[in-house]
Please model this.
Amino acid sequence: MSTEGQSAESPNPSPLEDPAAPAVVQQGSEPLLAVSGLHVEFRTQEGVARVLNGVRYHVDAGETLAVLGESGSGKSVTANTVMGILEMPPAAITAGEIRFRGEDLLTASASRRREVRGEGIAMIFQDALSALNPVFTVGFQIEEQLRKRRGMSRKDARKRAIELLDLVRIPNAKGRVRQFPHEFSGGMRQRAMIAMSLALDPEVLIADEPTTALDVTVQAQIMDLLAEIQRERNMGMILITHDLGVVAEVADRIAVMYAGRIVEEADVHSIYRKPGHPYTRALMDSMPRLDQRGQELNTIKGLPPSLTAIPEGCPFHPRCPLAIDLCREKDPELLTIAEGRVSACHRSDELMRDE
Amino acid sequence: MGRYVARRLLQLIPVFIGTTFLIYLLVWALPGDPFAGKCGERPCPESFVAVMREKFNMDDPLFIQYGKYLLNLLQGDFGETFSGTSVGTLISNAYPVTIRLALIALLFEALIGVIAGILTGLRGRGFMDNLVLVSTLFLIAIPTFVTGYLVQTVFGLQLGWIAPTVSGNASWGELLAPGFVLASVSMAYVARLTRTSIAENKRADFVRTAVAKGQPQHRVVGVHLLRNSAIPVVTFLGTDLGALMGGAIVTEGIFNINGIGGLVFRSIARQEGTTVTGVVVLLVIVYLVMNLLVDLLYAVLDPRIRYD
Ligand SMILES: Nc1ncnc2c1ncn2[C@@H]1O[C@H](COP(=O)(O)OP(=O)(O)O)[C@@H](O)[C@H]1O
Ligand code: SF4
Ligand SMILES: [Mg+2]
Model:
């Protein structure tokens, strides 16, 4: 099997030199959504921040990809680029492809992109209170999709909106549909946003830290709901999170991000059994575990790199316990380390070998 | 909501009594003899002055005078001038003109101010933005009477586009130029307020959500962005309608308009205390009622606001 690494030695690769092959190659058919070689930078007064440096991942129908990484690693920027809601400027996409059902969205027309939003790919955001419009009822915001994009009548749209609220298990949907977002509790609001995102039956759902703003008890309920909906509708789901506990339960595959690149991608079982990248291992060690209660938590030493000055070589080397001289000089490519697994580390072979 | 309105109306009573008393006090405590020059060349005869002082309760203590005035006022009686004309009639003749002027001004404010604000708020930095910022700064810095005389001199006297003064019946067309002058300062504020409000909301999460939903651009802006940005602007316009009527005094003076501004102007000069008090009391009422309406409007525009 061939390997396609986005090498940082060529800082501005053209999309053509970077085939849209997914990290884990699917035989036969094209993946539902595939991001490849995505480079995004933010041009600000403080300089150019290289926020995405060759991100690639893909998701298929009926599968959940979890995107994991410390805050600031570029998870949201990637998602926003896929949705086409990146603010440009200050952001600029300098290279890459985003293929939805084989069609490159980055070269598609503005109207085609708009068509895909909501209907092909929908997104739910972290903070439902600010993401929903405060001056319109929840019903209006769901019905807007049905009326303006599906041409439904007011009456039919209202009926469907109530069904959708029922679907996400909001009690008394008939009454709730007339209420404003601030009249909902946090969990109910997030459910309403999920209902809104489902209005046009999207094929891919991107959930950007959908439970971070919620109480712990509510978090689990929302995650269960999302997992159930994803399964029932056979959707592809991209779940952005920094909660490893959540990932283990709902994800099929995991993509780990660091400094704007994917450093490891694997199916959830093998990555938990044996991480193929020192950063993944550090993330897992920093997770509170039941059997280590009372012991001090291993947090990852050091800080993520400044994106205006990403270190030479492997961007993780200043924090990596396994770093060798080579790591300071050469940026490791994303290589296949086992069946269906890729990792960007000079020492991944050793990691995979030792027990 | 009903209880809130009732409470607000009750609060109006002490405010109303306080302000009107203050006005009464100030007006009737004006120095100078109100009867000077009322009887031609000669000073007024003792008997006439005595009758007048009796008629206007001028020998009572001030509190009693005010009490009697208030009682009449509550029955809709604004009193009479020294020459026996009903102040109520004077006001009802003058008020429609001023309302017309204030509405024209409000229209200018809303139209030009809001459009300039939307254009600059949406586009961000650039030529248009600088143009609006500089011109609004001018309008804010220059007092209304300067703008007024400028418009009158340039467009009225030199170019001859408008009549320098407004005729007795003060038609809508004649009031356009004075309305613009009256609006000028507020128009600048509306433009800036709209611009800031839009620029803030443009980056709001809910606008991003509307884009992510694939709603067309005209709906993202026209429905989601503008509806939220309108809240402070609409409330400003509402409060300003009350202020415009008071502010009309200067503009009406310049263009010789027979509105309440002109009425107050002349009445102060002639020491017609009853007229001055009547007009100002009415302005206070309009102002208080407009403020209440604006607060209620605020709750209608922003569902997060609850009055109870
Ligand atoms: N509007 C912006 N201007 C400048 N930098 C930005 C902007 N948005 C995001 N970034 C930068 O992009 C990086 C990645 O952000 P993000 O994708 O939000 O991280 P996360 O993985 O926590 O979702 C951050 O370092 C952040 O500073
Ligand atoms: S390449 Fe080197 S520095 Fe980077 S993760 Fe692997 S061992 Fe650590
Ligand atoms: Mg984020």
